[in-house]
Design a protein that fits this description.
Helices cover 44% and strands 13% of the residues. It contains 14 helices and ten strands.
Length: 333
């Protein structure tokens, strides 16, 4: 099954060779507190320790390195909810290219300012990822820039899949891998890598309760548009693209389950990561921990939770830790 998909295990292994030395191989540690809580070994993949603070550097680097010199010289453009933009700005700068990053007004200022610091041209457009993408399409059409999408591209998915290779290389007996799910680049790549080596390992996608575009699309049997709303897991926002060519099919065929999390559960995950694991993670990076805390994961074998990013506004993080952060979309909170 995996070999018929847009990204194969060999594509991911080729990406690992291509990006070697340009991204970090991140550590994986066992959580003894979670082992006692769920009754099975739990390991945390600390991908938030990546150079740009999230897994996105893997896919961005692989995609930039896969471009020709002539393509890079035209300039690179993408829409982003923040982390892809930061990663692409970093990867483009490393190769002497200029990146233009288009984002909506929902992207937190800490992510916007970091992208500017890396030298990218930042465009703030509209109030959704889809509106930011319209500006990307215009720049490609009218100014000849080369698009590197945040998720729906084989080179991006293959790059993200290198994280799955690291997980299985470190823990071949993993029974369940918990992966944050948005547009599906990480989930598709990790699932292709993990199941390409260990077909019986379950890969479960985790996302916020409302505005979950991939879950809504899979339920509908086709890509659909959803309203983009504010969330502690802001990196999981945005649509999957109505003309999705890669990640929809891969998530449909490879993910064993998708679990939705409330804002309160995500906040609890962030607090637990800090208080018990001494890890600072953004909301999207805490969804694996959140699902475990909420008792939404059942399994006897070793479980791996990917902590995907740490690019959180620290004032917001402190409010979450102290219990004073208003939670989005939950009445009375």
């Amino acid at each position: 099954m995996v070999s018929t998909l847009p990204v194969s295990l060999e594509d991911i292994r080729a990406a690992a060779r291509r990006i070697a030395g340009r991204v970090l191989g991140t550590p994986m540690v066992q959580s003894f507190s979670f082992g006692e809580l769920v009754g099975a070994p739990v390991h945390l993949k600390l991908e938030h320790h990546q150079t740009t603070g999230s897994f996105k550097l893997r896919g961005a680097t692989n995609a930039v390195l896969s471009l020709s010199r002539a393509e890079r010289s035209r300039g690179i453009v993408a829409a982003s909810t923040g982390n892809h933009g930061r990663a692409l700005a970093y990867a483009a700068k490393a190769e002497g290219a200029v990146a233009t990053i288009c984002m909506s007004r929902l992207v937190p200022e800490n992510k916007v300012s970091e992208i500017r610091r890396l030298g990218a041209d930042v465009r703030i457009v509209g109030s959704s990822q889809d509106e930011a993408q319209q500006e990307v399409d215009r720049l490609v059409r009218e100014e000849g820039l080369v698009m590197v999408p945040p998720f729906d591209h084989p080179d991006v998915v293959a790059g993200q899949g290198t994280l799955g290779l690291e997980i299985i290389d470190t823990l071949p007996e993993a029974a369940i891998v918990l992966v944050p799910l948005s547009g599906g680049g990480l989930a598709a790549g990790v699932a292709a890598a993990v199941k390409g080596i260990s077909p019986t390992t379950k890969v479960i996608g985790l996302t916020m309760e409302k505005g979950a575009a991939m879950k809504a699309s899979l339920d509908a049997g086709r890509p659909v548009q959803v309203e983009e709303v504010a969330s502690l897991a802001d990196s999981l926002g945005g649509g999957i693209g109505l003309d999705n060519r890669v990640t929809f099919a891969m998530c449909r065929d490879l993910l064993d389950e998708i679990i939705l999390l409330t804002e309160a559960e995500i906040a609890a995950g962030m607090r637990h990561a800090y208080a018990c694991e001494r890890q600072v993670v953004e909301g999207a990076g805490a969804v694996g921990i959140a699902a475990l805390l909420a008792g939404k994961i059942v399994g006897n074998g070793p479980i791996v939770a990917i902590l995907s990013g740490q690019n959180v506004d620290m004032e917001q993080h402190l409010r979450v830790i102290n219990g004073t952060q208003p939670l989005y979309r939950e009445e009375g909170l």
